[in-house]
Amino acid sequence: MKLINPPHQSDRRRVSRRFVSAVGVFAALLDATPSVASAQRADSSGYVTVEDGTRVYFEVHGRARDTVIVPGGVMLAPHLSALGTEFTVVFYDPRGRGKSDWVDDARRVTVADEVRDLEAVRAHFRISRAAIVGFSYLGLVSAIYAADNPQQVSRLVLMGPMAPDLQTASRYAPPERKARTDAATAKFTRARAGADTTDFAADCRRWYDAYGQLYVGDPGDASRITTEFCVLQNESPSRLFWRNEQFNRSLGRRWDYTRKAAMIRAPTLVIQGDRDLAVSPDGARRWTELIQDARLIMLAGAGHLTYLERHERVMPALERFLKGQWPGEAMQLRTTRD
Asked: For the chain, which domains are there?
């Protein structure tokens, strides 16, 4: 699952092959246009300085009694900030992402660092117990945190989560993903030919214009993705590809967090699109089977960006679950423990 730098024309065929195995983590790079009603202004914002001195940017929405922590604010705050009407929601950008400090030391861009940063944010706000919402690769991070810190996690939401183990992730290779990847690579190569690739914002927009259709079930929904975040250098393709490669390497060659999943005690809602080309839908099923008290919402026809593609279903489900009740459509699965 190694990531790659933007391709030159001569690299097109090689990139197409490598991107198929890497596409899952790329999904965490995407932002999308929220509805006007869902976008809320932050009540406060600033930085948390974590253990190694890195500054992590945060935004707080709402001032309710119950708290929700959401890693990946650069992607999710525009879409989930409406939760601030019912909860105190703390969004933060992972290290090297969004407005957080860039980290150029590979030894400090690991899954362990991500888990520690989540704990640092919780401790900074003196939150005794919070719900956690993790999307894509941050779903894996959030699940590990929940397993290691059961007393601090009241509820857990995994949206389009990275699979809990390499075996589940690696056996997912739908033909449609390869076809879309090949088309996207060709489009990006044409757009980049002769362009000023030192302009990171322009290169970012070109990349998402080409590859955005990989992250939605219906390619027509790609037009709803915006690239306002491209003005942030941390969201430039070259930085993101390097950063995500370091994260992937930190997982190990045969990574397997299924035992961690079985240790999670918080009620867990898994939300997944059945046409997700970025991560395996079987990964969502696997999390649901392994976690003691978990249920799954599988959204027909949706891709990776369920909070955009099925916003009208995802938001009510999140609100109901975070208030302590299971959404009616959430399914229990027969588990491997039976």
From this structure: 1-327 (3.40.50.1820)
